[in-house]
Specification:
single chain; mainly alpha; 4 helices; DUF2304
């Protein structure tokens, strides 16, 4: 196994552990925004200087810059998918709690007449 493959696998595993942790604090949200900004800046640079991606890929032991971009996009896709899943899961839990609270608030004793 090439060392870049090990690095990519480690990145995927670290992203998984990161996303499974509580993501509700402001520090975590700030790091996500910084990571997104770095991704956008790097993408613009790769568009403006496509030959440089091949140079960086060769430094990392990848044959072509397009392959390196593909690997990075796979990691970004996994992060985005897991982040969206976690966010929806949190929202579903909040909606369930809200529905329970409303149901308990409007509960009537058995046998009492409806208004």
């Amino acid at each position: 196994m090439n060392w870049i493959q090990g690095l990519l696998i480690a990145a995927v595993v670290l992203l998984l552990f990161y996303l499974l942790r509580s993501r509700t604090n402001a520090k975590t949200r700030a790091w996500v925004k910084v990571g997104y900004l770095l991704f956008v800046v790097t993408a613009v640079y790769a568009i403006l200087r496509p030959d440089d991606t091949t140079v960086v890929a060769n430094w990392l032991g990848v044959a072509r810059g397009a392959d390196l971009i593909g690997y990075v996009l796979i990691i970004v896709f996994i992060f985005t998918t897991m982040s969206t899943y976690m966010r929806f899961r949190d929202l579903e839990l909040k909606y369930a709690r809200l529905a329970r609270a409303v149901a308990l608030q409007n509960a009537r004793e058995p046998g009492s007449e409806a208004p």
